[in-house]
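Posting for a labmate who doesn't have an account.
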Amino acid sequence: MGVLGELDAPAVRRWCRAGLQQLGRAREEIDALNVYPVPDGDTGTNLFLTLEAGTAEVEALFGRDNAAPGADNHAEPSLPATMRALAHGALMGARGNSGVILSQLLRGIADQIEADYRQAAALGTEHGSGPVLRRALHRAAEEAYAAVARPVEGTMLTVARAAARGCDDVADDLTAVVRGMASAAREALARTPEQLDVLRRAGVVDAGGRGLCVLFDALVSVVTGERQASEPRTHVPVPLRFTPETSCAESPLAPAFEVIYLLDAPDEAIPPLRARLDALGDSLVVVGGEGLWNVHVHVDDAGAAVEAGIEAGRPHRVRITHLAVSGAVPSEAARPPAAAGRAIVAVVHGEGLAALFTEAGARVVEAGPGRAPSTSTLVEAIRATGAREVVLLPNDPDGHAVAAVAAEQAHAYGIRVQVVPTKAAVQGIAALAVHEPGRRFDQDVVGMTSAAGGTRYGALTVATREAWTMAGVCQAGDVLGIIDGDIAVIGQDLAATAKTVLDRMLAGGGELVTLVTGAQVAPGIADDLVLAMRAVRPEVDAVVYDGGQSVYPLLIGVE
């Protein structure tokens, strides 16, 4: 996709998806950088879960608009409505200090975009995306600073403000603004150890600031169509020996609990609440508005923090985490440990595939194009198995990050989860075929991972628009042959293209071919493909399943 001239609702949707994917990849690295304000190693995870909640609301908004009675299938929500959905979802699902601040940054962006659009509509003028985003970034930084009771420099607040200032002296076009924003954020991130002593002694940059840079880089990729060429330097020379545990020893009076809750309260109740919570503890952040707030604070007396919320309004979704143990279970989520035994949880798209995986003994989580399961959905499915050991099959490369976070979340319930990194349903089928519950858990996971990794995966789909691909330029209606995630063949006939794809996949050898037909494929295509293959490769076995998946008329696996 080329350079984007204007920021619109679909671009925000792509930003959400790209940001979530990039945060998923960087999550463990960001967690490892987390030494401030509490070295609990969860900043990357908290940012991921917060953005995931916002992304889910954006996806729901697009779904609602397209599903409305009489709606045009090509209708889309407005940019202000999309940003408002993103900010609201992030507010409702914010996790940790960094997640709460991120939700306020998104709210500031949404507020300014909405204000600019209203003004442009009233005056009958045009609004350029570059200047709008510039103003939105400034407002976001201001509102984030205002939300934190005691702002500290060298944190994600510093990076956010630097990003806003970084697009002040650039051209008004959107590309220049996002590049200026991202570049300034990276420079500010590199300086954070100079501003915050705990970072300097740990030899790392600020974790929240690093996460913010990931999101800014994702926006640059959406606007410019370019990938980030290099990663920023996140570790610096350490002048003193230091480990995250050291900071706890240095601060024996650090608060024991993190308290987070949503609060229904009028605006006038918030200043007294801030004052009371500020006296109780530290790391106080209160974000939101219009009657709905997200409250975050570190305290020794968790009950007093909740009571303060009760006096101000109606607190709900209360989460209390003991800060002395990274990844502790929130008090509202405490549950009995899982029972013994082993189970498989698989993400599947298509009624036929769902039935196939269920018959093989897996617990199925249904998904679909643009409808990936959330972390909480996967955790619920894992817990519902009642097993102490669970193998998770994401069956989609974009689902690996969510699966990894779900595995960590499930660990808090006493469940051991291993993710087999399946990238397609056919790899999941191969993994299930070698699953042996009687083996040791690690051996079973290794065997399933080996089977999945030894299965090449392909698919056929139909192009919906003109686009550039690795195989050349395709037109709407062309049949696209995908091999190991890349478009390798462009054709006009489904059967002929499928044969070309299968021939290429078998060129490197193979013993078993798996074909999974989609919901709208013509009958007999898979059988004809098998006959043609056996005419030249009689030694290769084949199996055909009716998957019922949409988008992909045919899935192909070669073991």
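Reply:
Got it, the structure tokens are right above this. The mean pLDDT is 87.
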